[in-house]
Amino acid sequence: MEQKKFMDIQRLKEGYADGFVPGDLIVIQEKFDGSNAAARYDAETGKMVAFSRRHTLNQNNTLNGFYNYVQELNPEDYKDVPDYVIFGEWSGARNAIIYYPENTKKWYVFDIYDVREEKYLPQSEVKAFAETHGLTYINTFYVGPFVSWEHVQSFMDHPGYGEIQEGIVIKNQTRLNDPNSRLPFVVKIVGDKFHEVAKMNHVKKIQDPQKLQERTEAQELVKSVVTRRRVEKELYKMRDEGIIPTEWCEQDMKTVARNLPNRIYTDCVKEEPEVVRAAGQYFGKFCSVISMNYAREIILGPTGAK
């Protein structure tokens, strides 16, 4: 059976913060320091298959007992969902964090991927699936609208499995399975003791909630003036000037990308100078991203928006 790879969760960087805007539905979960472990029902054999991050497990390679745990699951409970790959963390071996004994030899489920639909299930469905099938769902601190990065950071240092918390994972459910986004919809924030990079000051600067909040507020300002209507009007002007054809299509996107952002920026400087000044150094970047997102939506349809 072909193995579905684990998602590479990116450490929060300043630019990645732009993928989370106030009002987005997010889920904040504890980052567990265990072993990546997945399971799936095999319709051909009628058995459950266990995976580590890179290998299919067997009796000679059990991932510290995870293979044995999966063999004890009742395949009949999973035969109706053969396309579901269930992802989690297995606490079968000692890692950097020592958890309470009652939290070892357990599988903490945090994601489910539907290989037929090629999409991840919303966390509400993952939680319901875990509860229905007697699996343990990962410790979840918050489910609700994104407020600010300061609010997100407030869930650090609240360990649920031991005396130390490695960090948190933030999942944007509003942007779940967006195939066109250049920004990750899942990011992680790791405590100072567990950073995998040497330049600690650089990491702290990236994760500075005040700086991240500044970007978020600037993004909202730019969105208030770089509207779909403004972009639409500018595209029509480009059409009337012969820059793009009357019947525009995907092949015209390169021309649009070369011209539209600067035209929108210039129009905003003229019509909305107070907002441009308030957004400061961030206006140009956000103006370009937002205007092109609208342009893709207008020219390619809703599925073209990024």
Give a structural overview:
This protein has 306 residues and is α+β, with helices and mostly antiparallel strands. Helices cover 33% and strands 19% of the residues. It has nine helices and eleven strands. It has helices spanning 66-71, 123-132, 149-153, 200-206, 209-225, 228-240, 253-271, 273-279, 283-300; strands at 10-11, 25-31, 35-42, 47-51, 84-90, 107-114, 119-120, 136-137, 140-145, 167-172, 186-190. Strands 3, 4, 5, 6, 7 and 8 form a six-stranded mixed beta sheet that branches. The radius of gyration is 23 Å and the shape is elongated. Mean pLDDT is 88; it is low at 196-206.
Supply the key terms:
306 residues; D-amino Acid Aminotransferase, Chain A, domain 1; 2 domains; 6-stranded mixed β-sheet; 5-stranded mixed β-sheet
